[in-house]
Specification:
By secondary structure, this protein is mainly alpha-helical. Strand 1 and strand 2 form a beta hairpin.
């Protein structure tokens, strides 16, 4: 899969103003695609165990990542507007972090099957490796590591907190399709 295919899957890349950061995000996804023999990024499932449990086979990782990115940007823009002059955050970091937050899933799953990476490392450790190899800043590795409650690392920056909350909401929107009470599924 080419870098052009990654750019096509994630048009939000154009919102990253820093050319080097944008190229690093593309490189991270391209590396993960290549290392995990993914033919078509758009066919990668979102979260196979949850999808099986909830009979939601049609949810894709690309759609989820794009939802998280849109939610994180909307949250950031709202806070910047409402807290003008008080809050400072880096929108490039928000967008780039949201775009790479789930890059680990390419190594954690092979189609709908869990891999040894999922079983032995879990989410999101492979993503830290990929972001480092792509030369992305440590702030993005922190977002990857802290975006999920499956690690003990809490968000230390506003950008990381925004991505974590956006991911939670995007995942809740998926689970909502299968239940009328989100407390029954996690």
């Amino acid at each position: 899969m080419s870098e052009d295919a990654v750019r096509a899957a994630f048009p939000e890349l154009t919102a990253i103003g820093d050319d080097e950061l944008r190229a690093g995000v593309v490189d991270a996804w391209s590396t993960a695609v290549l290392e995990n023999d993914v033919d078509d990024l758009t066919t990668v499932p979102w979260l196979p165990p949850t999808q099986r449990d909830l009979a939601l086979d049609d949810e894709s990782l690309v759609t989820h990542v794009r939802d998280v990115t849109a939610c994180a940007v909307a949250l950031a823009e709202t806070l910047l507007d409402r807290r003008e002059g008080i809050l400072s955050l880096d929108m490039d970091t928000v967008v780039a972090g949201a775009l790479v937050h789930d890059v680990s899933k390419l190594a954690e799953f092979d189609g709908m099957d869990e891999t040894a990476v999922h079983a032995l490392l879990g989410h999101p450790y492979y993503g830290i490796h990929v972001t480092a190899r792509a030369g992305l800043p440590v702030e993005l590795a922190h977002i990857v590591l802290s975006h999920t409650s499956r690690t003990a690392v809490e968000p230390a920056t506003i950008e990381a907190e925004l991505v974590r909350r956006a991911d939670e909401m995007a995942a809740a929107a998926i689970r909502w399709r299968a239940t009328d009470d989100l407390r029954t599924v996690r």
